[in-house]
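Re: that chain you flagged

S.,

Sorry for the slow reply, it's been a week of failed gels. I finally had a moment to sit down with the sequence you sent. For the record, here it is as I used it:
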Amino acid sequence: MLALAACFALAVFAQNGGKTAAVSTPFRAGEELSYEGKISKSLIRGIAIADLTFTVARTSPDSGFMVKADARSKGTLTKLFRFSFVQEIESIFDGQVMRVESTKKRDVQKERIRESEALFDYAERQVTYTEIDPKEPMRPPRKIASDIGPETHDMVSAIYRLRMLPLAVNSSHELMVSDSGLVYSIPVKVTKRERLKTAIGRVQCFRVEPVVFGPGRLIEREGSMIIWVTDDARRIPVRAQVNTSLGRVQINIKSAKNINS
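Prediction finished late last night. Pasting the structure tokens below so you have them in one place:
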């Protein structure tokens, strides 16, 4: 769905790997990144359709992180396409191994509401996903269990792992991302460096291209995706572009609070 493209565009990366020692991070508790998504299609040019915010907190002073992602449609999307959505995600991930531990999600699309939780058990190498419809409390929950690797991410924690990778032009990475109880292996390549004008200034960026579209992929339709991440110690995602037959969605950073200097 185009309504979910903003979330996909900013949260689909990680690198598969083993355990590591305690690490320093380019982000910290209190960091807040805000974005605006716009759509272009035929005669429609750059119409704002959604806002997206990521907020970082600590689960304990020296251990894990909790990131809350909030994506909401704007009035233009409702008026033009008669569609609205709200997606709230709470992702908890280990601050040393940098892998997801749990994901809670509330997904509202027009009148449809789904609440879910994914729990990641690395001893058993399995993710267990449970989804309920709060409007139908007597309906049995939907459950899915899948095998996972030693480092797996959800769609939110993955972007924070990406920010820690040693990005370089022509470098390639293979990532493991779990969504709705399923697990996907996604190739990612850094294709070039580009200087962009953004709301946080002119910044040199890495252009990152993940393969998330296609049969058996995270998004099972034709399309492409590009992410621009700053080439500095902060590694801030400042722009994303999703191209599909339904149109082009571009997500640009609006503001960044409490970022590392």
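What I noticed first: Helices lie at 5-10, 75-81, 157-162.

Talk soon,
D.
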